[in-house]
Amino acid sequence: MITTSKRLEGIGEYYFSQKLREIDGLNQQGKQIINLGIGSPDLPPHPDVIKTLQEESAKPNVHAYQSYKGSPVLRKAVADWYATWYKVELNPDTEILPLIGSKEGIMHICMTYLDAGDMALIPNPGYPTYSSAVKLAGGTTVPYELTEENNWFPDLEQLGKEVTALNQQSKGTVKLMWVNYPQMPTGKLPEASLFKQLVAFGKQHNILICHDNPYSFILNDEPTSLLSVEGAKDCVVELNSLSKSQNMAGWRVGTLCGAKERIDEVLRFKSNMDSGMFLPLQLAAATALGLPKEWYDQVNSIYRARRTKVFELLTLLNCVYDESQAGMFVWAKIPAGYKDGFALSDEVLYNANVFITPGGIFGNAGNPYVRVSLCSSEEKLQQSIDRVQHFLTTAKVTA
C-alpha cells in the first residue's frame, strides 16, 4: 500500500479549501451563500498593469525561462517602492528576491533554515501557513500567544525566557520567529517601539525575525517596514506581496527583502523549486509598484465604505470590534452565549446563508472571535446585513 510521507502527519487540508467545498455543496442546493470569509480582492489591478501584461506578452522573445533572481526591472521597482513608501534602502542586485507569491516564500524560508528539531516561534492567533510550513520543513512550532489586553503584541520579555529554556533543554534551537504587522487576523497596526524591540530580540537570541508584510497599505495611512529599524538587516527578512495592495492575488507576485547573505541562502533552496516567473508578468508587476498615491487612496476609499457596512453587520450580531484596525478584514469578539467563533459562524451560515470566518482557525487564542472580509461589494454586504436581520427577527418571533 502506498502511504504518504511522515512530514504530512498533523498537516490537514487548509481550512478554506474544506469550507469552500461545503459552501459549494450548499450553493448546489440553492442556498446562494454570500462568502465573507476569504481575503481575495474582488477589485481589478490598475488598467496600466493589465496593459503592460498584454503588450509584453505579445512580444516574441519573452517566453523563455527567466532568471532565478527575477528581472532586474522588477527588482529595481521593488527597491524604488521600498525607498518611496517605507524609507528603506535596498540594493536591487543583492537584497531583493522576487517570489511566485509570498506564501511560497514562507515555505522557502522554513526549508532553508530549519532542520529536524529546530524551532520557530508562531503567533497565536496568526496565519495558519506559518505553522504548516514549519512542520513540513521538519521543524517544531512554538506558539506565542497574542492577547487583546497586550494590544496583540508579543510579550517579548516572557518569550525571551522561554527561548532560553528551550535552547537549553532541546536538541535543536529556536531559529525563526514569524511576525506580521499590520497583524492578520487582528488588524493591529505596528508601533515603532515594537519594531525596535523585535530587532533587539532577534539579535539577543540569534533568531531570524521573519516579517510578513502584505497588509501595510490597506486602510493604513502610514505603511511601515520592519527593515526601517536601524540594524534590522542583521536579523530580519521581510516578505511583501502585490496580492492585496495592487489587487493582484491571482498573479502570484511577491518579494523577499533582506541582507545579501539571507537572499543568497534562500535562493539556494528556491532555485531548486521553480524556474523563474513569466517576464511579462514581472514587468506588469513593476508597473504596479510604480503607481502613485492616488491608486492607494482610491482602493482604500472603497474598503473604508465596505468596512462601515461590516461594522453594521457585526453590531447586528452583538460583536465587539476595534474601529482602528487595518487590513482587509475586521476582527471582532463574539457575544456571550456562544461557545466559540465556530458556533457563531455556523449559526450565520446555516440560518442566514452568510459565511464569516471563525477566529479559531488562526489558533486557539482566536476562539472567542470571528473575522469578516472586506472583499465583497457594498451591495453584497448589505444583502448579508438584510439576511442576518431577517434571521434574527424570525428567531425572536419563534422564540
Model description:
The protein is α/β, with parallel strands linked by helices and 399 residues long. It has two domains: 6-44 and 294-398, Aspartate Aminotransferase, domain 1 (Alpha-Beta Complex), CATH 3.90.1150.10; 47-293, Aspartate Aminotransferase, domain 2, CATH 3.40.640.10. The protein is 42% helix and 14% strand. It is built from twelve helices and 13 strands. The protein has helices spanning 15-28, 47-57, 72-86, 102-113, 128-136, 156-169, 192-205, 260-270, 279-289, 293-316, 341-352, 378-398; strands spanning 34-35, 96-99, 119-124, 140-145, 174-179, 208-212, 236-241, 254-258, 320-321, 329-333, 354-355, 357-358, 369-373. The strands form three sheets. The chain has a seven-stranded mixed beta sheet, with helices on both faces. A four-stranded antiparallel beta sheet has the order 9-10-13-12. β5, α7 (192-205) and β6 (208-212) form a beta-alpha-beta unit. α4 (102-113) packs across α8 and α10 packs parallel to α12. The radius of gyration is 22 Å and the shape is globular. The N and C termini lie far apart (54 Å). The model has no long low-confidence stretch (mean pLDDT 94).
